[in-house]
């Protein structure tokens, strides 16, 4: 179990083998920032190659099918992602929920399958803008978590990370206020403590995601209950991504 800040790059549908040089540069820099846990989730096609190059960073997948194997053209199971070198998987990302109609119930079966295959899980949640305007954002997010999490998880403090990503902040350059981030993360923490108990619920890291950049990382990461960041656009170059990691580690090479 690690309480180090966790900085995860979600490359989404970006990256060919030409991106391996960025992965190498991220890995080299991560070896100097030992106060921070750094990971990347490249597209499936690069998982094995990044895994082979990486000495310090963990590699993850961006999704998985709930099954183990079978007649599901185009799908990848958690077992297969783990075999390629993935240590974790991002599940329930809003782009999966929107582009592929993924329900909370489907996400829950994926979480179960991924944990069963030995992968750690980063479970995403986050409200659309209208829910925030209606003041129903907290209820919406906690309901997502309630329905997307299995009844029981062994050692959730080790195996589970939550990523709060308000949909309207993803790729828009907009972010909630620090008070709004603090309020949502406190509610998620209270939910986790109620579900998993004081100790384990207190150990699950809660990442913030949505337009995290080197310029705003330090203040966002200083908010209580923010245990790291899930970074999209700014994770695509080692330079911007590792400046976020540097901000997470108090701005010092270690
Ligand atoms: P951006 O950092 O590009 O806003 O993306 C956030 C995200 O969706 C990470 O999963």
Walk me through what this model shows:
This protein is 44% helix and 15% strand. It has 254 residues and is α/β, with parallel strands linked by helices. It has one domain: Aldolase class I (TIM Barrel), CATH 3.20.20.70. The chain has an 8-stranded parallel barrel, surrounded by 8 helices. It is globular and about 45 Å long. It starts with 5 loop residues before the first strand and ends in a 6-residue tail after the last helix. The mean pLDDT is 96. 1,3-dihydroxyacetonephosphate binds next to strand 8.
Largest pleated sheet:
8 strands, parallel, barrel
Q: CATH-wise, what's the superfamily?
A: Aldolase class I
How do the helices and strands follow one another from N- to C-terminus? EHEHEHEHHEHHHEHHEHEH
What coarse outline follows from CA principal-axis ratios?
A: globular
CATH class reads: Alpha Beta
Number of strands: 8
* CATH architectural name: Alpha-Beta Barrel
Number of helices: 12
List low-confidence stretches.
none
Topology record:
Elements: E1 6-10, H1 20-30, E2 37-41, H2 44-53, E3 58-61, H3 78-84, E4 88-91, H4 94-99, H5 104-116, E5 120-125, H6 129-133, H7 137-148, H8 156-159, E6 160-164, H9 178-196, H10 198-203, E7 205-209, H11 214-221, E8 228-231, H12 238-248
Parallel strand pairs: 1-2, 1-8, 2-3, 3-4, 4-5, 5-6, 6-7, 7-8
Helix pairs in contact: 1-2, 1-12, 5-7, 11-12
The structure holds 1,3-dihydroxyacetonephosphate.
1,3-dihydroxyacetonephosphate binds next to strand 8.
């Amino acid at each position: 179990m690690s309480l180090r800040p966790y900085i995860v790059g979600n490359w989404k549908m970006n990256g060919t083998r030409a991106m391996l040089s960025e992965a190498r540069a991220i890995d080299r820099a991560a070896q100097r920032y030992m106060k921070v846990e750094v990971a990347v989730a490249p597209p499936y096609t690069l998982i094995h190659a990044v895994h082979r190059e990486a000495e310090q960073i963990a590699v993850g997948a961006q999704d998985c099918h709930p099954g183990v194997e079978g007649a599901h053209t185009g799908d990848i199971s958690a077992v297969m992602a783990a075999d390629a070198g993935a240590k974790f998987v991002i599940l329930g990302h809003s782009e999966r929920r929107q582009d592929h109609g993924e329900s909370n119930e489907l996400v829950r079966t994926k979480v179960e399958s991924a944990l069963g295959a030995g992968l750690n899980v980063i479970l995403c949640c986050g409200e659309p803008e209208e829910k925030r305007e209606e003041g129903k954002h907290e209820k919406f997010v906690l309901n997502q978590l309630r329905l997307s999490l299995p009844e029981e998880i062994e050692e959730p403090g080790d195996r589970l990370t939550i990523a709060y990503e308000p949909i309207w902040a993803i790729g828009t350059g907009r972010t909630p206020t620090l008070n709004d981030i603090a309020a949502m993360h406190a509610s998620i923490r209270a939910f986790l403590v109620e579900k998993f108990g004081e100790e384990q619920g207190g150990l699950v890291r809660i990442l913030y995601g949505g337009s995290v950049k080197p310029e705003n990382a330090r203040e966002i990461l200083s908010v209580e209950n923010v245990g790291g960041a899930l970074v999209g656009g700014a994770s695509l170059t080692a330079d911007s991504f590792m400046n976020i990691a540097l901000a997470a580690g108090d701005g010092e090479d270690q």
